[in-house]
Every structure is written in C-alpha cells, then in structure tokens.
Amino acid sequence: MDLIAFYARVTRRSALKLAVAAGVLSMTVVPAAAQQVTLNFWDMIWGDKAYPAAAQALVDRYNQENPNVKVEYRSVPWSNWYETYVTAIASGSAPDMSTGGGFQAVQFYDQGAILPVDDVVKQIGNSEFEASTLDAMKYDDHYVGLPWALNVKVVLYRKDILEAAGIKPPTTLEELRQAAKATTGNGKFGIVASGDPSGAHWITHMAIANGGGLFNKDGTAGLTSERTKEGLQFLSDLVKDGSVNPASAGYTNNDALGAFFRGEAAFVLAGATASSQAGDAKSKIGILPPLKGPHGDVQGLYFVNNIMAYKQTQHPQETMAFMKWWSDNALSLWTDGHVNNLPARQSLAKNPYFTNDPDISFVMDNYMTGARTLSQTKGGTFPVLNTIDGDGFLLSLAQAIWQGQPLEAPLDTAQSHLEEVLGN
Amino acid sequence: MNETTPLKRWSLSALMLVIVAFLNMPIILMVLNSFQTTEQMLLSRSVIPAVFSLENYRGLTQTPFFQYFQNSVIVSLGATVVSVSAAVLGGYALSRYRNGLLQGYSTSLFAVQMFPVILALIPLFLIFQPLGLINNPLSVIIVYAVVNLPFITWMARSYFDTIPRELEEAALIDGCGPIEAFLRIVLPLSGPGIAATSIFAFLFSYNEFFVANVFLRTTNAMTLPVGIRMFMDQFSTDWGSLMAAATLMMLPTLVLFMFVQKFIAHGAVAGGVKG
Amino acid sequence: MALDQVEAGTWRTRARQMATPEFVTPAILLTPSILLLMLVIAYPMVQGFYFSFTNGSLMKAGRLVGIDNYVKLLTSPAFYHSLQFSLVFAFFNVVGCYLLGLGLALLMQKDMPGRAVFRVLLLLPWIVPSLVSIVAWRWMVADDKALFNQIVAVFGGSPIYFLSDSSWAITLVIIIKIWRSFPFMMLSLLAALQSIDRSLYEAAAIDSATKWQSFCNVTVPQIKNISIVLGLLMTVWSVNDFDTPWLLTQGGPANATENLIVLAYRYTFARNDVGMGAATSFVTLFILMVLVFFLLRLQRRN
Q: Is residue B1 part of a domain?
C-alpha cells in the first residue's frame, strides 16, 4: 500500500512515454491517421440546467476539429465534490483535466496529483489575465491552475419588490438590513439563503466585507477576530429581525435562487451572472453595488475558478492543448450554458455579450478592486484552503446562524475547528 | 381464543387496511406523484394527479438511469451468487453439527453484524486501489457478500433445520460421505429455501447505498442508489424526475418480494434470529 | 461416538476429535465463508487499526503519530455530540419499532380476511431501498408548501421546517428510521408469538385470567428472550446506520443529525484524514461491543 511508490511509478511511466513519443514524432512527418488519444475531462456545473449540454456541445466541436483526440466529457455535481476528487485521485482514476473551485489545484498539487500549467499560461500570455487572478493560482513558483472564471459574489435584488415598498436599492450594509426588514411580510422574506456551500459564502463574504476574513494577517484562524465577528453578528441580526427565510438552513442554492426568482424574497447572495438563469424574471432583477461596511470597507468575496491538469494523465501534451482551446473558445458556455461566473480572460471579457450586458459590466467595473479570496486577510493561496472550502464546518456555522442560534457558541466551535485544520 | 364473529373479522380487516394504507402513505404518494410533471406539482399542490403524464419517465431515458439499473442488477446478482453459495454451506454446517469451531463461527457471525462497515471500507479502498478494483463491480460484490453473510447464513441454517436428518442418515448408512449426502440429498430438496435466501441477498445488495457510494463513483460504474442520489443533488427541485426514478428503482424490489413472501409465512426469516 | 462425551483436556483427544468427519466436514463447509470473512473483515480490521495510529490521507500515506488521533477524538465536542445523537437515535428507534412491531404482530395474529396480503404489504417500508424512502418522505415534508405543512395549515398551525430546524430534523430522521425498521421487528415478533405454546393460554383461560393478564403473564415472559435479542440487533443496526441520516440531511443542519458513522465518513472522505476516520470507527466498534456485552448479560440472567 505504498502510494508514494505507486505514484512515482506512474510519473516515471508517463515520462518514459513522453520521451518515446517525442522521439518518434521528431523522426516522422505527421501521419495522416494518428492513433486516437482519449482524454477524460471532468467539468463542474457552472451554469444552470442548460450548462452540461452546452459544455458537451463544445466538447463535440473540439472532437470534430481534432479527429485524433477524443475528449470524454463528464459533468460533476457540486455536492460532495471534494470526496469525488479525493477518491478518484486516491484510486488512480483521476481525469486528465478538470475545472474546479478556487483551491482544488493547489491542495492537490501539494499532494502530488497536479501538473503545473505554466506552459499554457505562457502561450496565452500574462496580459490576458488580471494580475490578482494569476497570483491566486501561483504556488511553489508554478501556476497550478489556469484561471477560468471568476465567481464574484454579489447581492441581487428584486426591483419590483423594492419599488412596491418604496425603497431605494441599499448602498451600505446598514441600509440592506433596513431594506430586508421592510420587505419581509405576507409570507415573503427580505433575504433567502441556503445551507449548502453557496449559502456558506455569506460567512466569508460578510467577514471580508467588514474588513476581516477567515484568517488573520499572520495566517492564524481569524473567525473570532473583531471585524469578522462583527460581520457575522450582522448576519445574526438579520435573522433576529426575522428578515431571513427560516427554511434557509435546509435549502440548497437552487432552492434559494428558485425562491428569489419566484419573487418570494427581495435579496439573495449569488454569483454575478446568476440572473441569466431567471428566465422571465431577469428584467426584474438588479445587482447592488458593493455594500459599504460600518468602517468604510468596500470589499467582497470572489473565487478564481480554474482548469487543472492531473499528473495521472497519460497524454499531457494533448491535455494542455485541449486546455488552451477550452479557454480560448469558452464563449458558448456563457451564451448557451449561462455560466454563473465572470470570464477570467480579458479578451473574452471584452466580448459584446459581456460589455452589452449592463449587469456584467456593472460588476466588472465596480467589484474587481474590492474582490478578495478565501485567504483574506492573509492573502495568497495555500493547500489547506481547499480542505476548508470542502470541509463543511462553514456550512454548519451558516446553518446555525440561519436557524437563529446566538452567534457565540457556533462561532467558537467553527473557530476551534479552523484552528484544528490549520494545526495539521 | 374467543369465537370471532364475521363482523368482528371484517372490521379487523378494515382496520388493518387503514393502518396499512397509512403506513405506506409515503410510498403511495411518491408513485402517484411520479405521474405528475414538476410544474404540475408546484402549481396544483394536489395529491392526486390532475393530469396523468409519463413525461418524467420519458425524461429518464435522457439520463444514465438505465446504466445505473444495469450496474445494480449485475452487482446484486454477483453478490447473491457469492453470498448464497458460502452461506448455504455454512448454514448447513451450523444446522447439522455442534462443536467449538462452529460455536465460535456463530459468535463471529454475530460480531460481523455489529461491525461498522466503514471500518473495513478505508483499508479495503487502499487494498483494492492498486488492484484496479475501484469503480469495478467486483469490489462491491465482495463487500456485499460478506456484509450479508450473517443474515443469509442464519436464514439458510433455519431452513435446513426444517429438513429432517433421517434422509442424510439413510444416505450415510448406504455408504455416502457426509458432503456427498449434502449435495445429493439435501441440496435438491432445498430449492425453496435457497430461492428465499437468494431473494433476500439480492434485495439487500440492490438497496445498498453506502458501500456503493465509496467504491463506484463514475457514471459507468454507479448503481441506482448512488446515481439517483446524484439526481437529488443536481436536480433538487425536479421532483418529477426524482419520483419517477425512485418508483422505477423500487419495481424489481416489489416483484422479487412477491415471490418471496410465501416463505416469510413459515418464519424462515425470524427463526434464524433465535440462534 | 458423540463429541460431547469425549473428555476435553488432552491434546491427543483433541487431535482425535479434529480428525473425525464431525470436525472435518463442517470445517470444509465453512471454508468459503471463513475466507470471505478473513479478506473483508479480519484483515482490514487489522489494517484499520494500524491506520488509526497514523495521520495519512487517502492520497498520501502518513506516518505514525501514536495515540494522537484517539486523544483528539475523545477530547472533541463533535465526538460527544455524535455519540449522544447515535444513542438517542438508537434508543428511540428500538423503542418505537418494538411498540409498533409488537402491536402490529398482535393484531396480525388474529384471523381476518386478507391477512396474508396485509402481512406482505406491511413489509414494504423495510424492503424498499433507503434512498426511495428518503425521496418519498422528503417530498412530504420539504418546505412550507409540502403536504405535511399543508395539513398543518388546515389545522391552523404554522409550518414546520423539518430540514432546517435541528430538533425537527432529528425527530424526522428517527421517525423515518422507525418506519423503515418496524417490519423486521414485527415479523420476528410474529414468529415468536406464533411459537408460544397454546396450552399456556388455555391454562390461563381456565384460571379466568383477563386478556391483559394473560398478555402479561403468558405472552411477555415467553417473548422476553427474543425481545432482548431483537433489541440488541436493532441497537447495533441503528448505531451503524449511515444511509438514513446521510441521505436525508447529510448530518445537518448544523451537525444535528451527525452520528458516529457520518462523523467517521466525514473525517475520511471530506477532510481527507484517514487516521481520524479509522480511530472514530474503532471507538464506535468498542462502544457497540460494550453495549452488546451488557445486553447479553441481561439476556443470560433470564
């Protein structure tokens, strides 16, 4: 059961294969019918129901344009995504390439499972990415993942509900609180949230919005730091006001968005482009500007979602080629698949689909300067962030808050848990 | 017992009917709902479908549902064959013999019932992995066979208890070896018992979620419980598809169960518990 | 020569014992089963025991850390919370199943038309896959517009959020578990009831005992033994149940329905900490062994 030896063998095997392949290729002209290579591509669900089909169509296009490569597409649900990847890697059945959340690549890199994508970044060019997004992918002097999409968390609001209540869209956190209270009543609530990972984003988002974060500057657990605690107390106060739908703790993100789209809530925390899934309700939905905290902070949470390649791949060259192609041609994923995030590629962001959309350009213009990742206030990226992202203790904290439990006890539990995770 | 009048008997039946319907309400509702589309369900909120629709079932053909079904059947059949073969031999031994070894074996079977499966799963995962058995039905077949072994052995044993020994003794006198006697005389008579035992073994394997969830994670390999669980997360608000999938999943269970119910009458199941 | 007439003690006698067909044949018959058990239970158990002293993950083997994992586990509030929930869950499940199972078994003893059909239909909750049960129940109680809450609204109550309220989630998971388990209890008790000697009831009738008295003095003592065994089995199965809490709430909300097995699963697969997962599993096994020991003692005293 010597896993390290096993992986060493696998990498040596792939290295050997690469050498042989390079040798053969250098001696021949590209043959008319090359041997077909199969790549396994695992993709998370980045949009709504239409997304898997849109992604499959894009994969089919690649397969058509590249007859010697066959990409097999697999849609991976977000639920228990961490276990899916952990068991796959551990059982030697990792894909060649996958998309993933913010810190998956860096942690799996640390466990010896990821191939750096420095070459792909070089081919695309640094200017194609904002410096901060590339930084979020840099670890051990390598780029462990290719920035693909930015999940900027924003607060969406129902224009019709606010108009009916005669309220202007809030610009500060305090105004949000008042607005949420005012729009609660008659079976509707000011805010609907969820008890799943998306719902737990409220925790980090509020911590950051108030100038705090999960971490202190020195990297120790910061959940009970002054600013973070204050930010989370704000959430508890929202619940105390009765503004939060009591079913939130048991809701999934789909449930919460569904309720919001049906007009059962006035505000919801979501990805910047979530309203593209709203169908008819889209015109009634707006995006709040970054809300100012009581101390003047204007910050928020975002994730740099990315594409990564796995060391277990037997075709690293083809994988990297496909990765670059996927990054270059991702537009249809947004237009047809309603991706919930913003594009990381600058050239793609200049496409009329994005610039003509008032919401998207609004977010891109107003949110990027204040966007911070999970590692706030420490910054940078490190392996344990992925454990924290997938662990579930933040979910428990969020669920406890949505249930109306006083903040003290669940926060202390979460803080101890975070300290324990960091201590390892 | 007192004389029961026909009225009393029929009112008892009526009472039982109400109880049975009430207790099975969740399942009945689920089946009814599988014939309503999700939109219908959200709109009308009524229990009896206003419009009977097969839309949900049609929708299932677009999903890997039937791949999952195939995997479930393969895995369950495999586990049944392995487990029943071992259990029939073991049950026969427990039925006909008494000694220290068998007593110890009986106790360890009881202990296996107690075992939290997860304890075995972690090492097994790391053992199966280099053998390439992850995402392979064989891994799950082996684990199911063992996990079900105690219960199936008890069933087999209590069935053999009902077969009189005179037959084997007669064979032994005629010069048959004990194992020959078992194979030639007892086994052919055990058809019903083996059938019942097999059906239970199949059911337990077919219904199982936990072990399958750990070992079978790719779409090609997943069994129904795991696959439908993925539906639940991905399409949490698509009740229609979920109900249809669950109803279909339940069908083999029901069919097999019809076959086995007559064996339950004779306490073939419960008898083993006393042991 | 019957085995029980041979004196135990000398190894020669034992060797002679082992050579008789009464030893060899069962040994042969048991071989396939024992091989399976060795492979899937015994060997992994030893391996798992080793892992519980390491800090490895599924992806990367770890190094020995002594009893660190056990200390961490036994000093963590999460463990005691899971333990409490496991015991509460088991207790209410056993009691609920027993009462419901016994009641139905007594009813099923009576002669009535369609009895055989009823007996079969009552087994449905046990036979149906756990996932199907969860889906079915979930639909009934999911949100404020679900069927259950509609009925509550008819009676003028306010909706119960089963999945987001901790206490209600615990209640729901226990109810579902009882619902899934009672048929087995009923079936076993029915068999036990049917095996009670009728003459005992007749004797009681002659002594002009009431129905309640004959129940207390004849039925109860007769089924005491099997009741304890069933209770034991149910307790063990309840503590080991992963499916019901996981499929319903994944141990939530806020870890309310997280039992020991879910905790072990979380450590291993969600936190990538095989050592803690193994340690939790072993501690669970130990607790079960203690429970079984005491309950068996209780049975032997009767």
A: no
Question: Facing residues of A147 across strands?
Answer: A306
pLDDT tens, position by position, C149-172: 888 888 888 888 888 888 999 999
B179: domain CATH number is 1.10.3720.10
Does residue B52 sit in the same domain as residue B68? no
**Interchain CB distance below 8 Å, C135 and B243:** yes
User: Which segment, B170-174, C86-90, C249-253, is predicted with the most confidence on average?
Assistant: C86-90
Q: Could C27 and B101 be called an inter-chain contact, meaning their C-beta atoms sit closer than 8 Å?
A: yes
Burial (CB < 10 A; 0-12, 13-18, 19+), residue B259, is exposed
Name residues 113-152 of chain C within 8 A of A (Cβ): 142-144
Question: Nearest by CB to B92, which of C29, C124, C289?
Answer: C29
Rounded to two decimals, the ipTM of the complex is 0.83
Q: Is the pLDDT of residue B47 over 80?
A: no
CA atoms within 13 A on the CB side of C28: 11
Return d(Cα B169, Cα B178) in angstroms, integer. 9
Tokens representing C228? 């304890």
Query: Nearest C-alpha of chain C: how many angstroms from B181?
Result: 11
Residue B207 domain flag: yes
Which residues contact residue B52 at a Cβ distance below 8 angstroms, ignoring those fewer than 6 apart? B35
- Under 8 Å between Cβ of A124 and A131: no
The token pair that represents C255 in the structure block: 């870890």
Residues in a beta bridge with A139? A142
All chains having 3 or more CB pairs closer than 8 angstroms to chain C: A, B
Range of the domain at B109: 63-273
Whether residue B257 is found in the same domain as residue B223: yes
Mean pLDDT of chain A: 86
B174 in the same domain as B82? yes
Average the pLDDT over each of A12-16, A109-113, C245-249 and give the range with the smallest value.
A12-16
Q: Are residues B12 and B95 in the same domain?
A: no
Three-state secondary-structure class, residue B206:
helix
The amino acid present at A304, given as its one-letter code, is V
Domains of chain A: 3-150+304-368 (3.40.190.10), 152-302+373-423 (3.40.190.10)
- Say if residue B50 is in the same domain as residue B103: no
Q: Say what the pLDDT of residue A292 is.
A: 92
Q: Cβ A87–B219 below 8 Å, yes or no? A: no
Phi, psi dihedrals of residue A307, rounded to the nearest 5°: -110, 135
- B97 shares a domain with B124: yes
Tokens of A280: 């008819």
CA C148/CA A153 separation, integer angstroms:
35
Q: Give the 3-state secondary structure of residue C217.
A: helix
Residues B185-201 have pLDDT tens digits of 888 888 888 888 898 89
Q: If residue A318 lies in a helix (H) or strand (E), which one and from where to where?
A: helix A316-328
Asked whether residue A211 carries a pLDDT value surpassing 50, the answer given is yes
pLDDT given at position C18: 59
Q: What is the pLDDT of residue B251?
A: 87
